[in-house]
Amino acid sequence: MKIDIVRAGLLTTVQDLGRTRYRQFGVSLGGALDVHAMRVANLLVGNDESAAGLELTLGGVRIRFTDERLIAWCGGEFDVPVPPGHAARMHAGDEISFGQPKIGCRSWLAISGAIEVPIVLGSRSTDLRAQFGGFEGRALRDGDAVSLGRSRNGGAAAAISSWSAPREWTQTAEDEPTLRIVRGNEWEIFDAFGLTSVHFDVTPDSNRMGVRLDGPELPRKEDVDLTSEAVAPGTIQVPPSGQPIVLLGDCQTIGGYPKIAHVITVDLPRAAQLRPGDRVRFREVPLEQARELLRQRENDYRCFKTGLSLQRA
């Protein structure tokens, strides 16, 4: 039981929801850069929401199936024969291809039975910097054969299900998105109006660790020495260049650059879709609003999970 990677594309890795209990030891969270998309895709094919799937970057991927499986994907606007957020049945010998994205840069593919690679530190995710986890600690290559677990759910009777997840969950990429932020510890040492009043452009040296931005310099009001402190996905750091960096899932666990702000959790999926040349803006929101938006999404997710169970009953 496996899939054959006919064409691996630029960067395709095995990811789940990440390593959640090892940051105190310097181990990055990792996992899917859009955790919510991975959870939703897994539910659509009958997997546990924490199951491992594939994260595809910039498309160019072709996968062949060796037995019958259900698949579902979420992410940017990719050229795929299966619409996002729908479960689809694949038979032995069938192939699915992901073309180049029109908007965004990443997608997450779940397969019934899930990707079955060794668990390392509680996760099957690929840590590219440390070269462990996932498939031999590396990105997939043409010709790789990736093992799958046993599919537990018969799923959709049709080739492609008529029901789907909400579009705002399955296609999160936007032209010139606005990311909502809350204030960071060092907000006051900057003229933070500069962060929220202009746009920034994504630079080519962005990756799974963070999105590097180019725009008006964010100078410090005061030059103070900072002690290295914990950082997390969504933290916006400002290095000496004055150009902000939005940290993503593979970010380090501590950092000494000032933390001007944090992207709120429900907007991290949009941050994960930023690619070189994209333009992005920031808008400050109150912390309680950020919490309420997350609570509402989790409530909606639980309702969606219940609805799927009734659909399959």
The number of distinct β-strands equals 18
Count of the domains? 2
The N- and C-terminal alpha carbons lie at a distance of 27 Å
Helical content (DSSP H or I, runs of 4+): 10-25%
Return residue spans where pLDDT drops below 50 for at least 5 consecutive residues.
none
Largest sheet: 7 strands, mixed, barrel
Describe the structure.
With 313 residues, this protein is of the alpha+beta class. It has two domains: 2-172, no CATH class; 178-286, Cyclophilin-like (Cyclophilin). The chain has five helices and 18 strands. It has helices at 35-44, 167-170, 193-196, 268-271, 287-312, and strands spanning 2-8, 11-15, 53-57, 61-65, 69-77, 88-90, 95-98, 103-111, 145-147, 178-183, 200-202, 210-214, 229-230, 235-237, 245-247, 254-255, 259-263, 279-284. It has a seven-stranded mixed β-barrel with strand order 10-17-14-15-12-11-18. The chain has a five-stranded antiparallel sheet with strand order 2-3-8-5-6, with helices on one face. The protein has a four-stranded antiparallel sheet with strand order 7-4-1-9, with no helix packed on it. The protein is globular, with a radius of gyration of 20 Å. It starts with a strand and ends with a helix. The mean pLDDT is 94.
